[in-house]
Amino acid sequence: MRFEDLKKLNEARATRKAVVTVTDLATGEAQVLVESGSVGAPLGEAVAKALRSGKAGAVDVEGQALFLNVYLPPPRIVVIGAVHISQALARLAPVAGYDLTIIDPRTAFATEERFEGVELVADWPEDVLKQHPLDAYTALAAVTHDPKIDDFPLSQALKSGCFYVGALGSRKTHAKRVERLMEMGHSEEEITRIAAPIGLDIGAATPAEIALSTLAQIVQAFRRRDLVTGR
């Protein structure tokens, strides 16, 4: 790999951006495509498919044999709220390949006893997210039912382009949430990105089932996310 290409690859990794290297199998020539800008069809279609799957492989593009190698930032889930749903989600997420962090300033809930082995931060999201900002490879799930805790990270998730934003609560609760987010400067179009009620509709009735439906919805959003690629 050329030095300039390696530098581009390392810069993308450092900033949690996805990269696809495209190698011409006939000539050995390679190019590095970062998930920004645009690539025309039909190569763009092949690159987008590779980015969604995360799998490397050979493709044929108009008679040209190419090998696509994919470098994705590790997808992660940030959960706002140390509740029963979070406990179940913390067990399920690693199985699906997701890192998970739980943030909750309520020290009565955010205890090591309840979340053994889980990355748990007992602080306000406003303070935590300044040091660990959200990004396009982060899913945010707000599950406290408390606007004082949930609203700020939901707003940040929309601004940061998180691939998934979900919030616990009834439609009535969400209607009030929409009003507050609009007062914070978000448009109706932005707010429609929030999955509320959270999770796929599987008739979930227990915290574990809600966690399962939420994880399924996160995986769905990740595999179907909008992609833009460029050199």
Automatic annotation (TrEMBL):
Domain XdhC Rossmann, first and last residues per copy: 77-218
UniProt cross-references to InterPro entries, sorted A to Z: MoCofactor_Util/Proc, XdhC_Rossmann_dom
One Pfam entry name: XdhC_C
PANTHER family per record: ALDEHYDE OXIDOREDUCTASE MOLYBDENUM COFACTOR ASSEMBLY PROTEIN (PTHR30388), MOLYBDENUM COFACTOR INSERTION CHAPERONE PAOD (PTHR30388:SF4)
Descriptive protein name: XdhC family protein
